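B., you asked whether I could sanity-check this one before it goes into the benchmark set. Here's the sequence:
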Amino acid sequence: MRDVIATDAGPKAIGPYSQAIRSNGFVFVSGQVAIDPANQQVIQGDVAAQTERVMKNLSAILEAAGSGLEQVVKSTVFLKNMGDFAAMNEVYGRYFSSAPPARSTVEVARLPKDVLVEIDVVAALRK
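And here's what the prediction gave me:
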């Protein structure tokens, strides 16, 4: 079983991919960047502001799929500059304050729409 998740509460896909896929008790959320779903534009601001928007986008998509941030088991963070790690991590940590998920963080040469951070997650469905 494989269900495509699409919600107006998160940014529309900017390519041939789904916001998320629900399958076998898990939700696989595509990488989210700092796009405001209200206007489909990248928000202005530093990596902290962008991380805040990304986390809101992830939360909205997870909720639409029947999950939530508390159900995340794995995340991957892509940073344009590893020097932004502390600022990203401070915001990220507010969303995962207890029992945080497994995580990988990597620096990349470039991200879609020249954003500073992109995050994808895998989460369990709520029971």
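One thing to flag: The chain has a mean pLDDT of 97. Otherwise nothing jumped out at me.
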